[in-house]
Design a protein that fits this description.
The structure is a single chain. The chain has about 675 residues and is an all-alpha fold. It has six domains: about 15-65, no CATH class; about 70-160 and about 365-390; about 170-320, no CATH class; about 395-455, no CATH class; about 460-540; about 560-675. It contains 31 helices and three strands. Strands 1-2-3 form a three-stranded antiparallel sheet, with no helix packed on it. A hairpin with a 5-residue loop joins strand 1 and strand 2. The chain is elongated, with a radius of gyration of 42 Å. Pfam families: Nucleopor_Nup85. One of its GO terms (molecular function) is structural constituent of nuclear pore. Functions as a component of the nuclear pore complex (NPC). Belongs to the nucleoporin Nup85 family. It is found in: Nucleus, Nuclear pore complex.
């Protein structure tokens, strides 16, 4: 039988071939792995640079599984399933059996609708193209998912009071192998002419092999010889066949006694050779009573080992319970493989066949492991495991069974949600999976929100609202800082300042305020004046922002020629001790027009203070810069300067002269007023 094949791919890297083809890998964002050459160091080797160090380029290969949900059809599936997932979480594991069955069927209806869309897309796609092959692959994946989900629903959710599974297995086979039923439908539409078709008896046999006795009886009524003794006896046998009511009625013991009586009576009629004149009818009846030889002649015709299993159980063990199904399935599988081999065919079990066998054996460990290998980016295993956990049907072997179930479910939600958070179009869906995960999921959600590639400010505001609602203040701050940096790079300085203020990060606000002040000192152009004018109380986030806002207020007073409040504000700034050292030249130069005014705007005391700041702040700063330049002549040193005057020495001389003139005028005026 076919074994599971491990995917093999090659990475060509000349550097790694020199050291035994060794590579090292590391998980990066999402499920992406960065792979690079690696020289293994052991106890017998030295960790020294090789002769290739710094010569050959190091190639980093990014490996990532194919993400199928970028396709629009599958993206609609994941969106609809997400709504159902949220509805399931709202039940908080307190729903009824009906609630969980309804949710399971909703999931399956979403899958079936997706399959129909995929089939339509495959029909429209051109032949022998990659697009058509892709859609056919998707159809195969989601058909397998729906088949396994349907069986899981039967075995774990939609259980009957008696725990008998055969009637539901018949529906499952009828749903997934509809060929015989479709042929029967076409034949029933033909009426009395149906028996003339070559498909008449093959359709009847297919129906009987699948346990669809009622449809087979309807087809038999269309035969011209329906009034003959053989056909009447066949109808009588089928009509008298006992049917077990899974929702009550006879006990299993009483049903089995009736069943055994019916089998014995039917075998007696066959022994009497009443049906020998109609070999096809006789073969049908032999199938119905579970005749081993007759079944063996038909088993090898099925491509899938489980196609005729429910029908065989229906005729041989109609009261088969869930716990008996694993034994029956293994016995039937051995028989199917043996018949295939006798016919010269190699029996092959595909991945879906193995999953169904594990499911019938109730081996949930193997089931979960197997469905993780389906190429659906873990969508199926995540949703099925979550559903079984919520309805209390997830049974795994472990010392602490419930804890193991929780960990398994949470780990799957964590991986799937984290994967969706890396997709620019699906991150909002990924939030739900992480939000309903453990505390680790909530922490990962906060981290993932900061990694979303933001394309517009509207999207950024939307993410910030989510962060604020969920209390992710660190994420909110990080997003604001990223937006501030991006706006600064795009020369949208007002936006940059607003985002920095919103981040409430003192260092970041200070850096942007520094940028605006330095730009003004070099060019004389005050950037984003409207934003600065409306900062208000938010300026207290950073002392540098306070200085920027207050200096802007001085700037506005001065432009409006309102010199008295401008002079007062300027003197306060000089005394504030929050002036950045690079701005001392600009700030002191601003005093010159006020000091040179014929009508003194600055009193003698304030003039002395300006002169003090000149000598104690600016002059020592200049001397310090000069000494640094002499000590390190090749090192670029930021010489203090203002856009209005290039020579720093000239600034000092002008300021000293202006202070002397204003001081003399101010003293005269002040003394005159006092006299």
């Amino acid at each position: 039988m076919e074994d599971e094949q491990t995917a093999i791919f090659g990475i060509v890297d000349p550097l790694s071939t020199r050291f035994g083809n060794t590579l090292a890998g590391k998980f990066v964002r999402g499920n992406k792995i960065a792979v690079h050459p690696f020289r293994p160091i052991t106890s017998s080797t030295r960790d020294n640079p090789t002769e290739y160090a710094g010569k050959d380029p190091v190639h980093i290969q990014m490996l990532q599984p194919e993400f199928i949900f970028d396709d629009p059809i599958l993206r609609s599936l994941i969106a609809e399933a997400n709504a159902t997932f949220v509805t399931l979480q709202a039940l908080k594991r307190k729903g009824s059996k009906t609630d969980y069955t309804k949710i399971s069927r909703t999931y399956r209806s979403i899958i079936r609708a997706c399959l129909e869309k995929l089939q339509d897309a495959a029909v429209v796609a051109d032949e022998d193209t990659a697009e058509k092959e892709m859609y056919q692959q998707y159809i195969s994946i989601f058909y397998s998912i729906e088949c396994v989900w349907h069986l899981s629903e039967i075995l774990f959710l939609d259980q009957t009071p008696s725990n008998v599974v055969v009637p539901q297995l018949l529906e499952w086979v009828r749903f997934h192998f509809p060929a015989s039923e479709r042929m029967a439908t076409d034949l029933l539409l033909m009426g009395r002419d149906a028996s003339d078709s070559e498909e008449y008896w093959p359709a009847l046999k297919g129906l009987v092999l699948q346990g669809q006795v009622d449809v087979a009886r309807a087809l038999l009524q269309l035969h011209p010889q329906t009034e003959s003794a053989a056909f009447k006896m066949t109808e009588q046998i089928l009509k008298a066949m006992p049917t077990f009511n899974v929702y009550g009625g006879f006990s299993i013991q009483k049903f089995r006694s009736q069943w055994q009586y019916w089998i014995t009576d039917t075998e007696r009629k066959l022994t009497a050779n009443i049906l020998s004149i109609e070999p096809s009818l006789e073969e049908l009846v032999q199938l119905i009573i579970g005749d081993t030889q007759t079944w063996n002649t038909h088993i090898h015709n099925s491509d899938y080992w489980y196609e005729y299993l429910p029908g065989y159980l229906f005729y041989t063990n109609p009261a088969c319970k869930h716990f008996e199904l694993g034994t029956a399935a293994n016995s039937w599988l051995d028989r199917w493989a043996r018949m295939k081999t006798q016919q010269g065919k190699e029996p092959q079990l595909k991945h879906l066949d193995k999953v169904i066998l594990s499911l019938m054996e109730n081996d949930m460990h193997q089931v979960i492991h197997a469905i993780q290998l389906m190429a659906d980016n873990q969508w199926f295993v995540t949703h099925l495991t979550d559903l079984l956990y919520n309805c209390g049907q997830l049974q795994v072997v472990g010392e602490h069974q419930m804890n193991d179930c929780i960990k398994l479910r949470d780990s799957l939600l964590y991986e799937f949600g984290s994967n969706l958070m890396t997709r620019s179009s699906l991150w909002q869906l990924g939030m739900d999976y992480l939000q309903y995960c453990s505390e680790e999921g909530v922490a990962a959600l906060e981290l993932c929100l900061t990694k979303i590639p933001i394309k517009t400010e509207r999207q950024a505001i939307k993410i910030l609202e989510i962060c604020n609602k969920m209390g992710f203040y660190n994420a909110e701050q990080e997003i604001c800082k990223v937006q501030a940096k991006q706006s600064l790079d795009e020369e949208r300085y007002g936006n940059a300042l607003e985002w920095a203020i919103r981040s409430k990060d003192t260092i970041y606000v200070t850096s942007i305020a520094d940028f605006l002040l330095k730009h003004y000192s070099k060019t004389g152009d005050m950037l984003c004046p409207d934003i600065i004018a409306n900062i208000g109380a938010k300026m207290f986030i950073s002392p540098r922002l306070v200085f920027l806002v207050k200096y802007f207020d001085f700037y506005q007073f001065y432009r409006k020629r309102d010199f008295l409040p401008a002079a007062e504000l300027l003197v306060n700034l000089l005394d504030s001790k929050i002036t950045p050292e690079y701005f001392w030249p600009s700030l002191l130069i601003d005093t010159i027009p006020l000091l040179e005014s014929k009508d003194p705007k600055i009193l003698s005391k304030e003039t002395c203070a300006i002169l003090h700041h000149l000598e104690s702040e600016l002059v020592p700063l200049i001397e310090k810069k000069k000494k640094r330049l002499q000590k390190f002549p090749d090192e670029p040193v930021n010489i203090l300067k203002d856009y209005r005057i290039e020579n720093i020495e000239e600034i000092i001389n002008l300021l000293r002269l202006a202070c002397a003139r204003n001081l003399s005028r101010a003293i005269i005026i002040e003394n005159t007023m006092m006299g």
